[in-house]
Write a structure and sequence with these properties.
Elements lengths: L4 E3 L4 E8 L6 H8 L5 E11 L4 E11 L3 E10 L2
Antiparallel strand pairs: 1-3, 2-3, 3-4, 4-5
């Protein structure tokens, strides 16, 4: 949806979507950021879109212990 955005609030309602072999881009993540127990996560946060609009959005990202959160994406605008 939006290519450039900034997260303005804490991410809430965090859920795990996939873990381990269920993370379909695990090989890319391991080559790019290192080996780890990768999980695909989702949550809701207030974001500022590239055009300056502030709204609530559903955000998806990948994370691994010791590596952190990587590759944030907005999947849909909630409000």
């Amino acid at each position: 949806m939006a290519t450039g955005f900034e997260i303005l609030s804490e991410i809430r309602d965090v859920e795990r979507i996939a873990a381990g072999r269920g993370v379909y881009i695990r090989r890319y993540l391991e080559r790019t950021y290192g080996k780890g127990r990768w999980r695909k996560m989702k949550g809701i946060a207030t974001v500022r879109l590239a055009d300056g609009t502030i709204c609530e959005g559903e955000i998806h990202w990948f994370e691994a212990h010791g590596i952190g959160r990587k590759d944030f994406k907005i999947k849909k605008v909630v409000r």
